Amino acid sequence: MIGWPKLRGFCLSLILLTLTLLSSSCGDDQQGRLSDGSDETASANLTIRWYDTSVVKDLAPIRAASLDCQAGGVEQVVCEVYDAAGNWLVTGGPWACEAGSGRIERIPVGQDRIFVVLAEDDLGNIRYQGETTGVSIEAGQNTQTVVIDAYLFIPTLSVPENAAQDVDLGAVSLEWELVENADEYLVQVAKDVDFETIVINETTPATVYAAPPLAPLTEYFWKIRTVDMQANTGADSEVRSFVTSDCTNTISPTSQLVDKNGDAYNVTVSATQSGCEWSTSESDSWFSLSPTSGSGSGTVRVTVLSNRGAVRSATITIAGQNHTINQEEAPCTYTISPTSQSVDKKGDAYNVTVSATHSGCEWSTSESDSWFSLSPTSGSGSGTVRVTVLANRGAARSATITIAGQNHTINQ
User: pLDDT, tens digit, for every residue of 154-210?
Assistant: First the structure.
């Protein structure tokens, strides 16, 4: 039978052992361990220097070891430690924002450790970020001091300016300033200020983003977030807006000369983006257009029939732009009627009808004679020539004249 004194001593020993184990595991750090299973760890003291800028600049104002946490929107600070391959090892903190320093326990020993400081707001959004690489952690080391420069982790937007109007549909470019330690940037564009209707949600390593085609005459809102090598994402930048321009279309060629035989050719429509709709004016009796409407860039086929008349021209519209069709005249041909006329001895006056291919065809007659006259002696297009024959006091007489290049014989 075990006596009370012995039992009490055993219980006290058990309690002391439990308290020892608890004290060794307590703290504000989350413990990690090396991939090789090693449990050797060490500690490091952290000092943070706060910068007012988002990028390293000569003589940049330093907020020393303190930060106006309320003005900076920072609620707490943590420090994550990674190995050279980017694997998370341990997180130190959280610490109060005002401290500007902290102690990280149980860092797995090894070379090339990466320390990343994250200053977060009350929603966990990262407002400041800083990192240092190549830190060696040795077993049993408790006095290692790591100094980290932390920069504003929120991009400053530059182009387009807020509330910009008439932004070119074909060249929407979003630009912002470089952020220190940024690996890439998250670009978000929406049709509403609350970003419930997001149309672009992409990442880019650059500080310039060329947007894909957007709708014309539409207001858009945009913001940028910074992402570091460890996929830590910063708080939103300011939100800016812009309004896109209306669709702008161009055509080529703007005019075309077609010979009298007719032809078919293409007019190229170049639209600022695929959503730009367009149409053409109506066809005519001597030319046709196909298609008569479209969207985005495309081609309109113009077919012109042969011309049997004078020079002709038409100005049509394709995608809101003027296009002129010019067609050469048909060759001139003439006929006259009658081609001969018999007049009695008393004389007479009669008409010869000239039929020309078109109104632009000019013609003339041969000269009058002592016993007959012609009027008019020239003209253009179809018309009539009046032939006047005087009375004949002698023998039968005859004359062959030309009217519009055609022979006409007068017999009296």
Answer: 999 999 999 999 998 878 999 999 999 999 999 999 999 999 999 999 999 999 999
Give yes or no: residues 173 and 144 share one domain.
no
Question: Which two three-digit tokens encode residue 164?
Answer: 């910009």
| Nearest partner of 267 among 252, 288, 248, judged by Cα | 252
Residue 46 inside a domain? The answer is: yes
Give the C-alpha separation, 185 to 31, whole Å: 30
Cβ-contact 341, 401 below 8 angstroms: no
| Structural contact between residues 152 and 127, judged by C-beta atoms closer than 8 angstroms | yes
Domain at 132, CATH number: 2.60.40
Identify the three-state secondary structure at position 399. strand
Q: Does position 25 have pLDDT exceeding 60, yes or no?
A: no
Looking at residue 360, which CATH number applies to its domain? 2.60.40.10
Q: pLDDT tens digits, residue range 379-393?
A: 999 999 999 999 999
Domain that includes residue 124, residue range = 26-152
Q: How confident is the model at residue 20 (pLDDT cuts 50, 70, 90)?
A: very low
**Which strand ranges, in their side-by-side order, compose the sheet holding 101-108?**
88-96, 76-82, 110-120, 126-137, 144-152, 41-50, 101-108
Residue 69 phi/psi, 5-degree rounding, is -60, -40
Is residue 162 located within the same domain as residue 124? no
Tell whether the model's pLDDT for residue 51 goes beyond 90: no
Q: What is the mean pLDDT of residues 77-103?
A: 92
Q: Tell me what pLDDT residue 57 has.
A: 59
Q: Are 412 and 344 in contact (CB under 8 A)?
A: yes
Mean pLDDT, rounded, for 140-157 = 87
The tally of domains found in the chain comes to 4
Task: Say what the pLDDT of residue 390 is.
Answer: 96
Cα→Cα distances 147→88, 141, 279, 369, 375, Å: 19, 16, 66, 121, 112
| Phi, psi at 314, each rounded to 5° | -150, 140
How far is the C-alpha of 251 from the C-alpha of 325, rounded, in Å? 14
* Those residues with Cβ within 8 angstroms of residue 242's Cβ, 6 or more apart along the chain or in another chain: 160, 163, 164, 165, 167, 172, 219, 220, 222
pLDDT score for 278? 94
Q: How many CB atoms lie within 10 A of CB 117?
A: 26
